[in-house]
Amino acid sequence: MRLRTVGASGLKVSAIGLGSLTWGGQTDAREARSMVRRFVDAGGNLVDTAPAYGGGFAEQLIGKLIHTDISRDDLVIATKAGFVVEGKKRVVDTSRTALLRDLEGSLRRLHTDHVDLWQVHAWGDAPVEETCAALDHAVHSGMARYVGVSNFVGWQAATAATWQRTTGTRTPLVSNQVEYSLLARRAEIEVVPSAQYHGMGLLAWSSLGRGVLAGRYRNGTPKDSRGGSDRLSWFVQPYLTPKSQAVVNAISKAADGLGATAAQMALAWVRDAPVVSSALVGPRTTTQLEELLGVDDVVLPPEITSALDDITGGPNLARSEES
């Protein structure tokens, strides 16, 4: 699998990243372990996690794996801070205290002295200078190698990135992790231009449109899917619409012509989009992962890329600027 630098930094990550949102829920330890091993065998290195994933289970499992199954050096571990789930309530706290507390907890669960990429999980109410000071501290203390943000809209990412570069002595932000797929192209409006200007790479979460673009929902909602889960049905529901179904049908038709699957087509489109450093996927099984790893052999002809652009919102202006 090809490696890419994240933005203008020296951090190198695989073009496809492995997300761990479902670990501890729909994906048990045995299956997650199998996926990580297969992912690394295929040349992947970026594993994205967070304290909120499985209530810390995902980080704990990664911590075990780097001491039993794979070398710590084989992984680029990206985790987050500033967001927790308390009961059914989602709490965002980006104060210095909360962020560093989260990071210390992550390091304990991961059984490592540093993470490769530490991200603020969401924009919060704390002053941006306080949030950014925590990022600086994490790097200067050796707890994190690089820092970035997650789910920041364009102006938020630009504000944080500008603050970090004001004195020339602070740690620059290298990435913004946001939702981006053929069903969610909002990032192209402000996030992508912001990332381009500030030398940040895009980490695209839910590259398969929360799983819908894989085509599993064409004939209803499978009971073993995220959409059929009590815990994650809310996550998938916004994309179970006639419009989304039309996009899936178009992708499937194009995929047939290229000898690929709908999931591979959708993933290749994100992987090859401007500014994207890594397209994150969250397979629940090794079988699903195996299909997605096959995207390495998929090359989208320009006319197919343009057609997919057209049916999902129009031309990608950043792509036009590159050509």
Automatic annotation (TrEMBL):
All copies of domain NADP-dependent oxidoreductase, residue ranges: 16-311
Pfam families in alphabetical order: Aldo_ket_red
GO MF term set: oxidoreductase activity
Domain of life: Bacteria
Keyword vocabulary terms for this entry: Oxidoreductase
Catalytic class of the enzyme: oxidoreductase
Enzyme Commission no: 1.1.1.-
GO cellular component: cytosol
Full protein name: Aldo/keto reductase family oxidoreductase
UniProt xrefs under InterPro entries: AKR_Detox_Biosynth, NAD(P)_OxRdtase_dom_sf, NADP_OxRdtase_dom
SUPFAM superfamilies noted in UniProt: NAD(P)-linked oxidoreductase
